[in-house]
Amino acid sequence: MSKSNSNGVQEQTGVVTGAFTVKAGLAQMLKGGVIMDVVTPEQARIAEEAGACAVMALERVPADIRKDGGVARMSDPEMIKSIMEAVTIPVMAKVRIGHFVEAQILEAIGVDYIDESEVLTPADEEHHINKHKFAVPFVCGCRNLGEALRRIAEGAAMIRTKGEAGTGNVVEAVRHARAVNGAIRHLTTMDEDELFAYAKEIRAPYELVKQTAALGRMPVVNFAAGGVATPADAALMMQLGVDGVFVGSGIFKSGNPARRAKAIVQAVTHYNDPQILAEISENLGEAMVGINIDTLAENERLASRGW
Amino acid sequence: MSEIAIGVLALQGDFEEHIQMLARLGVATREVRKPEELRGLDGLIIPGGESTSMGLVAECWGLVEPLRAWVHAGRPAWGTCAGLILLADRAVGQKRGGQPLIGGLDVTVNRNYFGRQTDSFETMLSAPALGAEPIPAVFIRAPAIVELGADVEPLASLVGKTGEPIYVAVRQGAILATAFHPELTDDDRWHRYFLSMVGEVGD
Prior knowledge:
Oligomer: heterodimer
Number of strands of chain B: 12
Number of strands of chain A: 9
Strand order of the largest sheet of chain B: 2-1-3-4-12-11-10
């Protein structure tokens, strides 16, 4: 009589699930890929056919969350499950910052990754979720290296820039990616005494600062997010050194989502090949209408949520 | 081993981790995104990632046929996880409408056999071809081989859902396939094993 694990493998000695290696490992498998926001199973299928490496299931894309106002929460689990059934690629979903019960619910329905996201209305203005307590991995947003390493200390297995979601304007994502990579370049020139002081200055754990300096890169996978709308935007972020790209409103708020989705996937693979980038940028139809960041009031900026 | 060059398919996935592992072993590598980048290589690694993404990007730039030609010519190829799926002749649990496969490995693979991410796991495997010492293996939303062709040699197996054996590392001629990710561990025995296969073909 043998018992089966949830993963179907018969109980054999030394099978370990939910450890950091497999959490960070899934993010490593997503590298060089595009993760697309989708609100229906049909959109999820379009994303999968375009070559998305994962989808983010949500009820409203950030551009609509912005327009509609009110409190934005975790999506209906039924809707997320219908997307999980429609595609074979990993499915992510968002929870509010600090809302660990929303995270427990998403873990219970078996999503592959949780985004503790500033795009939703924060549930806790002091504490992020203790992500070590979960078997499901988390991705979190950051504007700079200190914020990224604080999230990793809390258990995040993947990082993304915050950018400014739902604007179709890449300027904030560029700012955040440059801030992170500039800080890492700076770190690699420091001696140990300086690393202690720098860790204090950016309010990050010394061990993670030391590890980042030794690796010369973020200790987990780092994607761009928040305002990517074109293949050129995606390739720009890749050339700035991110590992992959999230596209939110940019695809399904554009004139020809299937075509644009495919082009952005190609752009992330061939980000260093201007000939190919030129070819795939042709005839994509209307891009989403953008918003200039300086026209946003301070309380309309989603990136300032999270601490 | 200094004169050989290994290509790593760099369409999507963890190709960088393979390149770093080979660099530590002192082997020259090249990222392969276009058909002409296969020229002059001695071996090819298809990394972990999403097999649908890799298949669709490969199709877009006419890379599927050159990859098939590579494998069918008996040139050394190693697929890890998604790479195993792409090398398999038969896959179950594909996305709707199927997906482009390279084929060449006479097995049936069950995509995401082990379930979703929360079922991903680490374990120690016994792989006698690599020595008596058990070898660490990281399985991430991993596939499993459920049926072996006659010419396929099993290198490592686990016990499946209903007590049946499932295969997680196999070899057929110059093709090596692993359902797990040696590139995510510090143990370089699988990489050295593949390099020895490349050496045999070269001789």
